[in-house]
């Protein structure tokens, strides 16, 4: 199975079910060893494609490997998870969870990694004579911001800055605004209710007095 972050949309091909000579990132979860001595499988590896280089099928991607690790992700006792972290033009890190719940094991960290600024996220799979059943249960993506010395809470310098050019002026929020009006409305409602009760009591007393005066 493969995870893709590429410049092109996914099309069917010979590399784990997707196209060869891709531009971008491929993460390969290879569960079957063909010809790669000295490496324990299953093996997880990353490849950076330049749009021209072919995947090394004969050696399970050995000549293409950016980084990788052996991991027993096949028939694990827990749900296997992968967490890929990428800081633009900085580094790429892959962590795996396959031994215990909520226990992340670092597979690799690669520095000076540059991915296409506009990319497609995709998944594919391919099998040979032997096959496994792999189900993708869920996918979650998040944006990351690295804090800087300006102390803007890790936001981009042009995001959320009301002092920037073309910023719209807005009214400041006062948490106490409206409380006085609401309190006065409540007091008036209580006064009206008390007035109604007093009026009813007075009317009842008047009727009682009228009945007594008849006799």
The percentage helix is: 10-25%
Low-confidence stretches: 149-182
Number of strands: 9
- Seen as an oligomer or otherwise, the chain set is single chain
The domain count comes to 2
Calculate the mean pLDDT score and round it. Answer: 78
Overall morphology: elongated
In sequence order, what are the helices and strands, one letter per element? EEEEEEEEEH
**End-to-end C-alpha gap:** 102 Å
Q: In CATH's first tier, which class of the largest domain applies?
A: Mainly Beta
Tell me the radius of gyration: 34 Å
* CATH architecture assignment of the largest domain: Sandwich
Strand content range: 25-35%
CATH topology of the largest domain: Jelly Rolls
In what order do the strands lie side by side in the largest sheet?
Answer: 5-4-3-1-9
Largest sheet: 5 strands, antiparallel
> Which class do the helix and strand fractions yield?
alpha+beta
Summed up, the helix count is: 1
InterPro entries: ConA-like_dom_sf (IPR013320), Intracellular_Lectin-GPT (IPR051136), Lectin_leg (IPR005052)
Subcellular location: Membrane
Domain L-type lectin-like: 1-144
Keywords: Membrane, Signal, Transmembrane, Transmembrane helix
């Amino acid at each position: 199975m493969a995870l893709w972050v590429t410049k092109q949309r996914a099309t069917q091909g010979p590399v784990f079910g997707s196209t060869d000579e891709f531009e971008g990132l491929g993460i390969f979860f290879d569960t079957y060893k063909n010809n790669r001595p000295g490496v324990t499988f299953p093996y997880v590896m990353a490849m950076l494609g330049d749009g021209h280089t072919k995947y090394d099928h004969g050696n399970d991607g050995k000549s293409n490997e950016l980084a990788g690790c052996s991991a027993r992700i096949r028939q694990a006792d827990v749900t296997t998870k992968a967490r890929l972290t990428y800081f633009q033009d900085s580094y790429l890190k892959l962590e795996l969870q396959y031994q215990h719940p909520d226990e992340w094991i670092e597979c690799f960290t690669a520095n000076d990694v540059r991915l296409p600024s506009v990319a497609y996220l995709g998944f594919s799979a391919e099998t040979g004579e032997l096959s496994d059943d792999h189900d993708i249960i869920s996918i979650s993506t998040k944006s990351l911001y690295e804090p800087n010395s300006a102390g803007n809470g890790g936001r981009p310098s042009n995001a959320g800055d009301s002092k920037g050019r073309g910023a719209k002026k807005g009214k400041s929020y006062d948490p106490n605004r409206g409380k006085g009006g609401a309190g006065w409305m409540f007091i008036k409602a209580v006064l009206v209710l008390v007035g109604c009760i007093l009026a009813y009591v007075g009317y009842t007393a008047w009727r009682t007095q009228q009945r007594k005066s008849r006799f």
